[in-house]
Amino acid sequence: MKDKIIAKATDLFLKLGFKSVTMDDIAGEMCISKKTIYKYFCNKEILIQESTSMVHKEVHQIIDGIVAKNHNAIEENFEIRKMFKEMFKAGDTSPVYQLKKHYPEIYNAVMAREITECNIVFKQNIEKGIQQGLYRKNTPVDAYVEFYYTLIFSINGNISSEIEAHLLELQALEYHTRAMATPEGIIELEKQLNNYHL
Question: Whole-model pTM?
């Protein structure tokens, strides 16, 4: 039952926002009493923590799956971008923005965890792109990793509209890729941009 509550709460949080969803809403959606929810979660904050932890795990399992498909480095980044777009397309308001605004402590814990995980993914991607001749050999890997996650997390934490956030994230990905692409990398980037549908 605990996992079912987390799954339903996560679904509602991503669609309607962390602030607007109440324990009553979750109980009503599941046709259970609020008392049942409180048996597993003493307050909404604990449920949000569990929910963000589940989303984090899910996102990184999907990213691992995309990386395992062995796309070239640029296509891999676009596949990851598409995955985020699909996962968070339900709501008008960015869930990350809401989390930062209404639950800053949970947001800070989520971001600390995400930065660590994303650093690994971004770094591996740049190193892969260099090996494939799509990114310049002299790319300062650690600096570019930091530039990119600063851009992405800044967009997520400061833009309330999910649609606007998606567009800016795509532009950040193009900016990031152009900054380190070789001529072959630019050709691949243009191909990915042409195939990407907002």
Answer: 0.84
